[in-house]
Structures are given as structure tokens and as C-alpha cells.
């Protein structure tokens, strides 16, 4: 039997059941969505974006600017020629186009500044004025300037990081990966800098710390109110599920492109009022990338046990990091905040130790965290599954909260019932506390983590039978002291300096 036919547009042979080949189908849907260019009549590739006309326009300007470095020039030019929408565009931005440049923070790899950009990013070609139309900036619109250490020589990593940003951002909706507008150069240090969207609320770590302080105050108030208001808890859960939904969606976008982030933790997730974005893709590499050096670089608490033991990064090791982030957002505690982040902790994690909840958590949430933190990488869920799950839970919460606001009685789905049950228990027990006093050796910045002699990774024996916490393995300080006297696992060298 004949299982194929011709594409009605290009006559290419395709599978039966379809009218168009994939290429023609994509073009048709682009035409429907973006229309045709009024100048050359070709199909627009993005909103107000004719790739053919725009790449000619950029080409005509190639002689009007230079970064002073051939590689950087070539890199930017290529991206300008291949941009299919303004989101994928990159510009050389002279440093004098920025003003009010303020130092913000030292990142894992370099410094971050906040600045105002006089021009704003290009949104489309203005056919009446015959010039680029830019997104108008006001005093409160900031960009982040991120330098990479030793980028004068334009290390490959610098350009790699930018390429990845552009590769992952496919359209306007990809707003869970931070936008990169271009490259500039500090005239004094000669360091190249990435020009990026500035996250007003800072990193997720800052947001959680601020929230903890506020909750501490509010909690006293809540006690005074004397009656337990369950509706408030649903707001809290919506807030948390929304953040997790954004991170899972961003991670899915990275994984869908065959990439691995490799350094996912709350310090390189940034928050805006409307969304949460993954950033710091400097270590992000294709899944088939051959690891030349065996250095592990990261934050111990977020690194999967198999990676601590020197195995190669996989997408499943990113999922483990996501599991820790999930724990952190739900528990409002930093993972392993009360112990030293040393080789002993690394060894305990391999033996099945996981962070502990001191509150009751809905079983659906607890089970998902457990599967992300499973010692066996192949038993962890995919980013796609996580993203879908959080979307559904967010819908459940939105629906339920809307019904509360409209004072409509609604049927409670399982997720809502579980939140209610858990919060009733938490409210009646005084056990839950929000103290997050950090051990002086609990370190949450990325550093080299090379260990010797770590044991084979495993789950606690009752891992999936225990419904109250992630793992039943206890951290014992006494044991640590014994180990320290006769070190079983250790740093492999003296490189364990925090950066
Ligand atoms: Zn076709
Ligand atoms: Zn055109």
C-alpha cells in the first residue's frame, strides 16, 4: 500500500495524512501569524520582522561600527544576518551609550553592573522613517552589564554563553531565559561585557531572603488575628508554584535544545514582577559535549551525587538541582543550612542524605521532589514532565482562588485537598519555624568541588515508602568528627577555594 503523497506546495514526498511538508507547514503558519513584508512581499519570520530585508539593512551598517576585535565583529554580524525576530538580535553597543553605571554584585565568573541605556533595543524597521525603531527607555529601565573575568582575550566561553542565550530564546514567549541585547566593552579594563535585561528584584535567593524577613513579621500578625485563614495559604502556594513553573519551563527550553545547564541554583535564577528567568548559562554545554577536564564547578547542595563522584553531567543532573530548588522554595529553608558543606556532607549525600522538611508537605509535591532527587539519574522525571505538571497545578490554584474571590463553591481537586490538609497540620503544630540560621561553613556560591573516594550513590532504603520527608537518613555530627579524624572522603586537592 502507498503510504506517501506529495506536499501540495513543494511537491516533496511526505507521509500520508498530511497535506504539507514540515517546511511548508511552518512557513504557512508564519504567514498566518506575521503576514508578509510590505517591501519584498516575502513571509515575515517574526513580528514585524522580514529576515531578508533586515539582514540587508544590517549588512549596510557593517562598516559603521567595530568592536575592535575581529572575532567579536564576525560573531555579531552572523547573528544579525540570521536573526528571525528581534529577540534573537545582538548589537555592538559602544560603552558611552550607557549612563549611571552602578556596581551590583560579584558573580561566579565576573562582575555585574546596572546601567541605563540611552537607546533601548531594536524592535523593528520603521518603513516610514527609514530607520530602526527602538523600544523607548525611561529612567527606570535598566540593563545589566555582566563582565566575564579575563574576557579581554574574548574567551570562547564568553561568545558561547551569548550563543546559547540566543539559541534557547526562540520567540517572545520564551521569557524564562534572560534576554541578551548585545556586547559592549569597558574602556578602562578592556573587559567585554554582556548587555542583558536587568532583573529588578534580583536573584531568587534575594527574593527568598526578603520574603523570609517579611513572613517573620507577618507571622506575628497572623497569630494576633487568632483565626486561621486558609485562603491566605492558597495565595502563598500559587506564588510558589508560579515560580517553579517558570523555572521548569526555562529548563525545558534548555533541554529541548539538547543542552545541559550544569550550574543551576537559586543564585542564578533572577526574578521580575511578572516572571522568573534562568541566567548564567556560562557552563551550559551540549549534552554530547566531551568533557576535557574533570573539574566539577558548582554549589555542593545542588550538585547530583553522581556528579560529585566524577561522572559526566546529564540533563538528569540538572533535574536533581531543580529538585533542590523545589525543596528550597517550598520549605523556605536553604538546603543543608545548618551543617558544613564539606567532603563529609558530599559523602552523606551519596549515602542517601537529602534536605529535611520541618513542615507537612502535600504528598504530590513531596513525591515529585523525591523523584527529582532520586539517586538513580534514570528514575528522575524530565523537564517537560515537570513543566507540564506545574502548569496543571498552577491552573488548579488559579481556578480555585478565582472561585474563592467570586464566592463560588467549587469541587476541590486532589492538589487543593492536599494543600488544605497539610496547612491544617502545619497551623496546629508549633513545630514549624522559619529560622534559617546558616552554619559558617554552609557555602552557596559556585566553587570547585573535587572529592576523593566518595561512596556509591544510593537512596535511603524506605525512600518511596516514607511519606513525611524526603529521606530518612540522618546527618550525624558525631559521625563527622570520627570521619575527620580518619578521613574517609576528602577534597582531592587544595583547590576548594570559594570564588
Ligand atoms: Zn512542502
Ligand atoms: Zn522584506
TrEMBL record:
It comes from the Eukaryota. GO terms for biological process: signal transduction. Residues 98-394 form the Protein kinase domain. GO terms for cellular component: cytoplasm. GO terms for molecular function: ATP binding; protein kinase activity. The keyword Phosphoprotein does not apply. Signal peptide: none annotated. InterPro entries: Kinase-like_dom_sf (IPR011009), Prot_kinase_dom (IPR000719), Ser-Thr/Tyr_kinase_cat_dom (IPR001245), Ser_Thr_protein_kinase (IPR050167). SUPFAM superfamilies: Protein kinase-like (PK-like) (SSF56112). PROSITE patterns: PROTEIN_KINASE_DOM. The keyword Transferase applies. Keywords: Kinase, Transferase. PANTHER family: AT08303P (PTHR23257:SF963), SERINE-THREONINE PROTEIN KINASE (PTHR23257). This is Kinase-like domain-containing protein. The lineage of its organism: Eukaryota, Fungi, Fungi incertae sedis, Mucoromycota, Glomeromycotina.
